[in-house]
Amino acid sequence: MNKFLTTMMVVLSLPLAAVAQTPAWNELKGELKAALESKGDPVRGEKAFDSCVGCHRKDASGRTSGAYPRLSGQHATVLIKQIADIRAGRRSNPKMEPYLDDHALTAFEIADLAIYVQGLPISSENGKGPGTGVAAGRQIYDRDCASCHGGKGEGNAEKFYPMVAAQHYNYLLRELKFIRDGDRRNANPDMVKAIKPYSTADLEALADYMAQLAPPKK
């Protein structure tokens, strides 16, 4: 099967398919490949998500403080990749590691969980920034970010680019700093290169803008 495995088998309406042509940072193998090729079941996924609600809340809205990200509505492919990367040691997240042990969650359950969370409504009551950097942040976003994350922050499921709209400000800012400073090991090298020159003020403005973007309509 080619042509992005027939556009990911119509992107998640069929089994969560693998990508035919993948950059090195997204090499499809092992658990990541198995989960993407699995047909996620949202009913099973709701049960699997029970162990996540203590941090991410029952509606997967996360915490407005930014301590935990909003997961609701996020692309299932993005969720699968991040979970697989944490389990494989490609992304450091000590708080999640106990819940992602092989005995706690199989590759197939990862697909179930991801497809369930993707279908949850997206709250617009996310943690916002100060609002003073929105104009500057929009200029940065339109110049350097929109080509991958979409003009409205909707992301791209096929390319594993996360939806950034309506994400918590403090979470966005923290992760932007991690990526810029090389602390998020599974970051897309192109993004690392793009934001490496950013000042902290630039990152604050960018997070301010993305956090106020309205969640896309389903």
Oligomeric nature of the chains: single chain
Please state the structural category. Answer: mainly alpha
Characterize the largest beta sheet: strand count, sense, and whether it forms a barrel.
none
What's the total count of β strands?
0
- Global mean pLDDT: 87
Beta-strand percentage? Answer: under 5%
Separation, N- and C-terminal Cα atoms: 29 Å
**CATH architecture designation of the largest domain:** Orthogonal Bundle
Shape: globular
Description:
This protein is globular. It has helices spanning 3-11, 30-37, 42-48, 53-56, 76-88, 107-118, 134-144, 146-149, 169-181, 189-195, 200-212. It has two domains: 3-118, Cytochrome Bc1 Complex, Chain D, domain 2; 134-212, Cytochrome Bc1 Complex, Chain D, domain 2. It is mainly alpha-helical and 218 residues long. α2 (30-37) runs antiparallel to α5, α3 packs across α6 and α9 (169-181) packs antiparallel against α11 (200-212). It starts with a helix and ends in a 6-residue tail after the last helix.
